[in-house]
Amino acid sequence: MHPSLRKHLLVAVICTMSAGASAVPSKARAYHTYKERLLDTTAYSLERREFRLGAMKLSYGIFKYLEISTYTVPWLAGLFLEEFETIGSPNVEFKSTLINRNRFALSVSVEFLWGRVSSCTNPMLNPDGQLCTTEAEFSTVNWLVYPISVTSSVRINSRISIHIGGQYTATQATGGTRPFEGDISGSAVVNMLQIYGMFEWRLSRVVALTVTTRWLPYVSQTVVRGQIVVDDDTGATIGIQADILDNNAFAVIPGAVFSWNRANIRLGVGYGAFFVEPVGLVVPASVLSSISPEFDVFVRF
Questions:
Q1: Percent over 70 (pLDDT), the chain
Q2: What does the pLDDT look like over 156-200, one tens digit per residue?
Q3: How confident is the model at residue 245 (pLDDT cuts 50, 70, 90)?
Q4: Angle between helix 3-22 and helix 72-80 axes, rounded to 10 deg
Q5: Mean pLDDT over residues 217-227, rounded?
Q6: DSSP per residue over the chain, as a string?
Q7: Per-residue pLDDT tens for 10-48?
Q8: Domain count of the chain?
Q9: Residue 238 to residue 186: CA distance in whole angstroms
Q10: For residue 248, what pLDDT is reported?
């Protein structure tokens, strides 16, 4: 897809969602109350016909205990990386609060994130900087990530709540390239399990303090399988298993959520690895000097 067309389509989608949201009346309020609960890292979901429009996430309450969401950062990646053939990295998440009683709630969520990037395999084929003209000149990578989460929330009293959950993330990637008239194709698979918890203390209807912990007790070996074909009579099949991620990665993040009539700000910074919430993947602590941030700005109505 042409980069300029991709950018125009992405802007059109965001504008359409924003315009549609503003046209729907709602009585929802964002203050911290008994009815209005935190949504991130909890078992709670939006009410029916309720919207959340934020810098990191867009959500809509389809039914009373079922919401559909999409994360903005994967979409916006397509604005900055011309290698994307898809409009960024399309993603969708469904979250359902199966149980919501006086003091206990339980939810299940499932998400799908996919995408495709491609680039010229050999720049010498296009010395004038022109785009590749045939499929043989491209290297391509396709990926699919699908996390499944189960989260429980317990209200100790009107001010204090505890949220505990687990997320299993399966990641698959396939790709191919054609250097020097040969063919290389293959796939990679890695699975991981994350355990998370959050302590919530409501100081007022505007301020809620939080402490979030995340731990990665299990990461499978990255399994890579591929084929190399030089010609009709020459080729090979390869298989590799490697430990890429630390299966004991963790993060402890003190933070706060400020909530007014409609606007909300979520801030936090802690120590450890950086857990990418949309897809359940982990950035090693050494990459960000053991700084693990949390941030979002959104309106809820």
A1: 68
A2: 998 999 999 999 999 888 876 655 455 555 667 789 999 999 999
A3: low
A4: 150
A5: 74
A6: --HHHHHHHHHHHHHHHHHHHHTS------S--SSS---TTSS--PPTT-EEEESSEEEEEEETTEEEEEEHHHHHHHHH-TTBSSSS--EEEEEEEEEE-SSEEEEEEEEEEEEEEEEES-GGG-TT-PPP-SGGGEEEEEEEEEEEEEEEEEESSSSEEEEEEEEEEEEEEEEEE-GGG-EEEEEEEEEEEEEEEEEEEESSSSEEEEEEEEEEEEEPPEEEEEEEEEETTEEEEEEEEE--S-TT-EEEEEEEEEE-SSEEEEEEEEEE-EEETTTTEEE-TTTTTTEEEEEEEEEE-
A7: 544 444 444 443 434 444 455 767 678 899 999 999 999
A8: 1
A9: 9
A10: 87
Closest CA to 282 of 247, 256, 258, 257: 247
The tokens of 67 are what? 């919401």
pTM here? 0.78
Tokens standing for 280?
């359940």
Question: Tokens in use for 153?
Answer: 């929330």
CATH code of the domain containing 231: 2.40.128
Name the token pair of 161: 């709540």
Q: Domain residues for 251?
A: 3-300
Q: Please give the single-letter amino acid code of residue 120.
A: C
